[in-house]
Each structure stands twice: as structure tokens, then as C-alpha cells.
Amino acid sequence: MRCLGGFGRPSCSPGCSILSRLLIFSLQCGEVKRQNPLPMKANTLSLLLIPLGLVCVWLSPTAQAVSPPPDGGYSNFNPAEGTDALLRLTTGGRNTAVGFNSLFSNTNGSNNTATGYQALFSNTTGNFNTANGLNALSANITGSNNNRQ
Fold first, then answer.
1. Is 138 a domain residue?
2. Looking at the structure, do residues 15 and 72 belong to the same domain, yes or no?
3. Which range marks the domain in which residue 17 is found?
4. Distance CA 125, CA 127 (A)
5. Would you say residue 2 has pLDDT above 70?
């Protein structure tokens, strides 16, 4: 684009029309404005990617809770962490089980702490037991006040 003087003739004189100057903004007289094809490509790409992203979010699976819930979630103040920890609990209270199958068979026992693989595995009604480590007190069924490190 060039500055146009009167009657459509090219001109670089100070008399360039104000409208021409506003259209060209910072171009000097005689300088040609070049088109940049990038904004068109970016707009086309945005028009494709934004709906695609929204569809992906819409189709993604909904988050599901873990069952049984980790870090507590059991009634009577019974926190458990690990596969099948406190699995058969019914009415026991204040038990803590951390580890695979820890306090697995406990139904009515209370105030027990089991940490480790199958710690207090067979305990059903025993109370106030503490078992730490691999298979610690795993054969205890009804015994109470036991401590195994």
C-alpha cells in the first residue's frame, strides 16, 4: 500500500490524506505492508483443537472412589491401608491395620494395631494386641494383650 495524494495519484508528500495515514499506521510513505499468513493458520488450528480437547475431557472416565476407602473411612475409628486390611470387620473399634491382609479376619476385636504383611491375620475377637512386621501374631485368634515386634 502506498500513500495516496489527491485524485488517486501516488505521493509521498506531507499532504497524504489522514485516512491513508490511519490505515497504514507506522508505515513510511512508499513502504508496502506485507500479510502474515500465520494468524490464519493459528485461528484454524485453534478452531480444531479446542473442541477436540473438550470432547476428550467429556469422554474421559469419571474418577471413582477406592473401595474400601483408604486412610480410615471405616466406622468406629478404624483406619486401614493396604489390600484387604480389616476386610471382615463388623463391630470392632479403634483398630489400625497397615499392610496386605493385616487384621484380615478381625470381626469384633478392638484396640488392635497391625503393621505389616498379614500381621494379626487370624485375629477375630482378640483385644489390645500389637503386631509389627511380616506375619506378626498371624496365628492369634482370640488372644488379648499380646505384643509382637
1. yes
2. no
3. 1-33
4. 7
5. no
